[in-house]
Amino acid sequence: MLARATGKPDDSAARKDKRLRALYRRELQNNIQLSAGVVAVGAVFAAAVALLSKDTGGFAFLNLPVIILAVVLGRLVRHDGRHYVIGIGMVVGLLPALDSVAAVAMVAPSAALAIGGVALVPLAFAVFLPLDYRPHVTWLIIVDSIYLAFTLMMVVPTGVLHTNDATRPGSVLAAAALGTIVSVIANNIERRRRGVMNGQLLAVRGLYARMKEHEQDLRRQDEFLFMQQETLVVQQAELLRLNEELETIARIDALTGLGNRLRLNEDLASLAGRIERHGGKAGLLLLDLDRFKRVNDLSGHLAGDAALKGVADMLRRTSRVGDGLYRYGGEEFLIILHDCDETVLRTAGQRYVSAIESAGMRHPDNPPYGVVTTSAGAVEFSQANCTDIDSALHDADEALYVAKAKGRNRLELASFPPRPAFSMDRERAAS
Fold first, then answer.
1. Residue 211 and residue 13: Cα distance in Å, rounded?
2. Which of 6, 122, 212, 366 could cysteine-pair with 179, CB 3.0–4.6 Å?
3. Strands 159-160 and 155-156
């Protein structure tokens, strides 16, 4: 499953992996240290056997340098030899070969001792196994060359050197062949074991790398989603702000900037509800510009729009804090005056009428004034009429056209005595 997940690793991938090389180097250091111990023990055993024999004392003293060198190499490879581990291992592997050659040379009567000394070779090298095939073959060639050279030195072209030593060349060659075969088999087994281990380790490493990449992808996705969420929050806030602006714009007259009929209806409903529940009074002041149609006819609609803007600006300047200003329609404006009785309503209404006249906006056909003027009708808004807003507005409209009938540029309150009827259509047409 791991191999399928990460691909089949090869030897080159294992050699390039720094962690695997470090792992095998530490394993090789341990193996060489163990091999050096085996060689030292074998040399000590061979020396002990030699000391027990009266004819082999020299061989016992010859083993002393082998023992010392094996111990020194074992400690060296453990502490300071990690960069030369293969070379040190080869030297450790050659020690039993040299020792066995010396045994065969010095202990002529005992071929069994020669075979026993040479038997240390496969034991030592079966533990010390190089990582690659080439160093292993190189070491075998060196060891077999030593035994072959020794054998050629013992045998002359005419035959065996002397009959008592006839078994020694055969023993040496047999031990060398045995050591070579055992070492090759052990090395192949170890290489296969390491190949499997390489595959598993590299597969796990690759799977871990893919998991890390997947984790990074998930983290990037989380960051992207978080950014998207922040963007949505900002967009939602902007949408709410735009909706509020649209609601505000929907309640503002585009030309004058005053409240429009929608805003007026909402404010009137709110005012009526408050007065009905808690009492109080307010004033409704309805203004209509005098003969405004003549401005459009004689000076054009742009001049008419400018006059409407000027009137709206004058209303803003004249109004009290809290008064509501609205464009009622066409050239008509409506003002809501809060906390206002009839006396305050009359004073405030007259102030608005006078302010528009004093603005001095030229009118081409509004005699005798020659400037833009307005007629106004006002009605007191209280618990008596707050339940019928349309009737209150109608009363203000009736008062407005009474002001038109009396000569314009004036204010009339809706609380007047009954008056003769007159034609509203005719008066509206003449306004």
1. 20
2. 122
3. antiparallel
pLDDT digits (tens, 9 = 90+) for 283-302: 999 999 999 999 999 999 99
Place of tokens 């065969």: 104
Provide the phi-psi class of 317: left if phi over 0, else alpha when psi is between -120 and 50, else beta.
alpha
Beta bridge partners of 213: none
**Cα–chain center distance at 310:** 57
Q: Distance (Å, rounded) from C-alpha 96 to C-alpha 328?
A: 119
- Yes or no: say if 20 and 202 are a contact pair by the CB < 8 Å rule: yes
Where does residue 258 rank: exposed (0-12), middle (13-18), buried (19+ CB within 10 A)?
A: buried
Q: How far, CA to CA in Å, does 208 sit from each of 2, 7, 149?
A: 10, 13, 53
Please give the structure tokens belonging to residue 17: 């992996």
Would you put residue 15 in left (φ > 0), alpha (ψ -120 to 50) or beta? alpha
Q: Are 391 and 375 within 8 A, CB to CB?
A: no
Q: Quick one: tokens of 231?
A: 């963007």
Residues marked as catalytic: 331
List the alpha helices (DSSP H) in 324-388: 342-358
pLDDT at 361 over 80: yes
Let me know: does 40 contact 124? Beta carbons within 8 Å. Answer: no
Highest mean pLDDT pick, 36-45, 168-177, 194-203, 313-322: 313-322
- Nearest-CA neighbor of 293 among 370, 375, 368, 366? 366
- What is the per-residue pLDDT for 235? 92
Q: For the beta carbon of residue 180, count every other beta carbon within 10 angstroms.
A: 18
pTM greater than 0.70: no
How many other C-beta atoms lie within 10 A of the C-beta of residue 333?
Answer: 26
pLDDT at 190: 73
For β-strands 332-338 and 282-289, DSSP reports them as antiparallel
**3-state DSSP assignment of residue 96:** helix
- The CA angle 55-59-62, to the nearest 5 degrees, is 155
- Copy the structure tokens of residue 286: 């309805």
Calculate the dihedral angle through the C-alpha atoms of 50, 55, 57, 63, rounding to the nearest 10 degrees: -50
